[in-house]
Write a structure and sequence with these properties.
Blueprint lengths: L3 E2 L20 E6 L22 H17 L3 E6 L14 E5 L5 E5 L11 H10 L3 E3 L15 E3 L6 E5 L5 H11 L3 E5 L12 E5 L2 E4 L6 H10 L2 E4 L2 H5 L13 E5 L3 H9 L3 E5 L2 H4 L10 E3 L1
Parallel strand pairs: 1-9, 2-3, 5-6, 8-9, 11-12, 13-14
Antiparallel strand pairs: 2-15, 4-5, 7-8, 10-11
Bound molecules: arginine.
Length: 298
């Protein structure tokens, strides 16, 4: 079953056929002491260089942290590094996994932008200190891969969704599929404003996803609709300006999301989710929100 799936006609399983995987119980967060917008590597950062209010950013980060804590997720914290202003976005430097025996693994990223490459060893060190087996992709064969920014676990199942096109190469998923022995469904990203899969695709529970449809190809949308019974769509405004799809729903019930996503939040509540709004305005300036500000762990 460990296959790479790029088109809906390759799907020979339903979600219930995929072995289950425990839900994450922890998050790693990186305290943003050196967070700024210093360079432009995605469209959201244009015009934002030097415009981050550092104190406000730290306050917002604390509130995000409190919300994870409140919904029962244990928060682990490390500090960021001087000269690495994007390190707070700790969804990007790795992809963790728990195998069927309960052993923990992490594949380290190959960051697309030179400015972010030095973040990876700090996260690797944390994994080593916390009993994870660390794996590397072959840099001679794979150009880039930005961890859980693009690679997203299906809630409760040993199935990975892999976005590619801007920050991660399709080739990375061949290697990940082999290393973790899980099926990977790849989704091409076509709009630069949605440069990571986590900007336009959020798995809410086993049967429900929140997406921004125009960020995908028709084939991608087919794949998503094939595996999810319910697909909630975000409007352009809430997806681009408020990063609605960059929400996080670690337990299949509580959704932590940027403040003001009125339309999406109504749809989430109608579908039975508990919505927790939080301001991440200072992080939106860098092209990130709740999902990017943490790494889900077991
Ligand atoms: N998973 C995410 N979308 N992370 C946000 C990363 C933001 C960061 N400024 C970058 O462009 O790399």
């Amino acid at each position: 079953m460990a296959q790479l799936i790029t088109a809906a006609d390759q799907l020979d399983f339903g979600i219930d056929d995929i072995p289950s995987m425990p839900l994450p119980t922890k998050v790693l967060m990186v305290r943003p002491l050196h967070y700024t917008v210093d360079y432009v590597i995605n469209p959201h950062m244009a015009d934002q260089v030097g415009k981050v209010d550092t104190i406000q950013a730290h306050n917002e980060w604390e509130l995000v942290r409190n919300l994870f804590d409140q919904i029962g997720i244990e928060v682990r914290i490390i500090e960021d590094q001087d000269g690495l202003p994007d390190m707070v976005f700790c969804a990007n430097q790795s992809l963790p996994y728990i195998d069927k025996e309960g052993n923990r693994h992490a594949i380290m990223s190959i960051m697309h932008a030179d400015q972010r490459k030095k973040e990876v060893p700090y996260i690797e060190q944390w994994y080593r200190q916390n009993g994870y087996e660390v794996h590397f992709l072959d840099e001679n064969k794979i150009e880039d891969f930005e961890g859980c920014g693009d690679a997203i676990w299906h809630t409760g199942r040993r199935l990975l969704w892999g976005g590619y096109g801007f920050r991660s190469s399709h080739k990375a998923y061949e290697a990940i599929c082999e290393t973790f022995e899980v099926p990977v469904i790849t989704l091409e990203l076509v709009d630069e404003s949605f440069y990571h899969l986590d900007t336009c695709f959020c798995v809410l529970d086993e049967h429900t996803a929140l997406i921004y449809p125009d960020a995908f190809t028709e084939e991608g949308l087919n794949l998503i609709h094939n595996l999810f019974d319910e697909v909630i769509e975000a409007s352009k405004y809430e997806a681009v300006e408020l990063f609605a799809c960059n929400a996080s729903c670690p337990d299949g019930r509580n959704v932590i999301i940027q403040q003001g996503c009125t339309d999406v939040n109504k749809k989430l509540r109608d579908a039975g989710f508990a919505v927790h709004e939080v301001s991440t305005y200072e992080f939106l300036k860098s092209g990130g929100s709740v999902f990017c500000m943490k790494m889900l762990l077991w």
